[in-house]
Structures are given as C-alpha cells and as structure tokens.
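Researcher: I'm preparing a figure for a lab meeting and need a structural model of a single chain. I don't have an experimental structure, so a prediction will have to do for now. The sequence is pasted below. Please return the structure as tokens so I can convert it later.
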Amino acid sequence: MEYRDYYQTLNVARTASADEIKKAYRRLARKFHPDVSKEKDAEAKFKQVQEAYEVLKDPEKRAAYDQLGSNWKNGQDFRPPPDFGGGFEFRGRPGGMGGMGGGAGGHDSFSDFFSSLFGGAGAPGAGAGNPFGDAAYGMGGGGRRRAQPTRGRDHHARIDIELEEAFRGGNRTFELQRPQLDDEGLLRNRKHTVKVTIPAGITQGQQLRLAGQGEESETGGGSGDLFLEVHIRPHNQFEFDGRDVTVTLPLAPWEAALGASVTVPTLGGNVDMRIPPNSQSGQKLRLRGRGLPGSPAGDQFVQLKVVLPPADTPKARELYERMQAELDFNPRASASAEVGS
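Model: Understood. Here is the structure written out token by token.
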C-alpha cells in the first residue's frame, strides 16, 4: 500500500493551524469539485482532498498520523507500525483508532492507507463504530447543552505490555497523550500518567476501566471513565492465542526417534517433558495449564522441530552414508502411493 502525505495534499505545513487547514480544504474542494471543475482527474483529486481533510481537521486522528513521522514520501510502500495508536487517549466509544466505516462521511471511498490507520480489517481497535467527529476538541458542531448535569464522556487508549506481564500481572505506570487544540488552533499533546493494576492472565484486547479518569463534565456531572485496551507485544519465543501459548522446541533426530526427556521453557519457568519415541517434526504436545492463568487456565503447546546435524566432517558424512545404506526408509513413500492409487 502507498503512503499518503496529507499535508502535501492540502499544501499546508505540518505546523498548520486548524483554521489554515480548513481554508486550504475549502479552496481545493472548490477547485476539484466534480460538478464544477474542469481539471483533469478532478473527482479523484477531490476524494484525496476529502480524505486528507478528514484526518487533519481532527486533532485525534492528526496526532496519530503525525506519530508516523515526516520522513515518508507520497507513494512510498507503507505498512502501519505494530504500535500505531499506542499511548494516545481518545474520546468517544470503544475502538480507539478503528472502525471508521463508511456512510455519510464517504469513508468507504477512502484509500487503503486511510483504512489501515483508522478503520477496516487490521486497524488498531477496528470494528467499534466511529468515535471521531467535528465536535471533538473544539472543532465545532456543538449544539444545545442539556440543562441537567451530564456525565463527561469516556476516554479510550491502548497500552502495550509484555507477555510476561500478562502472565504475572502487576502494577505499571503509563504515559498517555491527549491531543488538543490550543487557543490559536494549533495541535498540542497534553501528557499525563496513569497507574494501572494489570491482572494476571489478561488477554489480548481486554479492557481495563479506570473509573472517573475520563473527560470532566462541563455541566456539573461526574467525570467519564478511562478504558485501556491491552495489546500484548509479539514475543521472541512464545506465540499466543487467547490464554494458550505455543513454543517451538528443537530436537535432535535421535531424540525424536528414540524418545527423550528434555527441558522446555514456559512462562512460569523451565519444566521437564517426555518426548515420545517416533515423534515427528511439526507434531504438537500439550502442557495443560501452562499458558496464561485464568478460569480455566490456558495450555502451552510444544511444537516439535527436528533439526539435522550438518554433514560437514568426514565422520558425520560416514554416519549419514551408513544410515542411507542400512535403513529401509523413503520419506516420500506415502506420497507416491497416494498419487498411484
């Protein structure tokens, strides 16, 4: 997918104020509106301008977009970083960055680049509705206030933790950023910290609720809550699915063929495991209850991987040649029989 430079599309600086962005959009929208424009590819350019404005007019989406940095070029091959959206605090319904969807705003006609960041499959928190709008952070569209006190809106943010933290639990402090517009319409990120108790056995996508730490009420009601969506970082040794974890265990050919007692790493420490004779590469063994804790606890799957010693010495070559001569073994025999049947 191709990167899109929204600032270049609107021909504004990355430091542009909200008013400058709005003026640039109106000028280009008039220029490329397909009903009146005689420009070449006016409709396509009009959609590009709409998409850029959809992001840059909204402090939340703009702050997240700015997180990508300024070194990208239009048309450059792009994939969203795995930590995109992490540490940013947003107003609105659950789902954070994703779930923009289509509808009246025309988001269904926006690019794959937009969808990868703010909605659609694979976007952070996708599938929970559109939490953004022009009313967020002083962008207008206010409407009449209710006379009675109303509760402040909930906030949502994503936090990243290690798999070991999900296993053990514990206390953590996270620094979050709330995108806001200052009095001059310039984007500012207000940083603040939250203290969080992570329960042992928390899983990917689970939300933690911090009561009263969301938006303050403007009408004398109580504050909203802050919901933290947990993302577990990829691990260099374990894969995880829900509370189950999987580890790949290398075996020597004789361990797989004859059976062996080996040491297997788990999140709770090393354990001894018996490998049955005639085990095969790719075979999975189960360690019950050795995954993430819970009711019930997850399991750990041990995927076997037979590793051959290299034939890089005369003695090693001799051993392989003896096996070739003395063992009646054809690893493709079953495949050949199936083809001939």
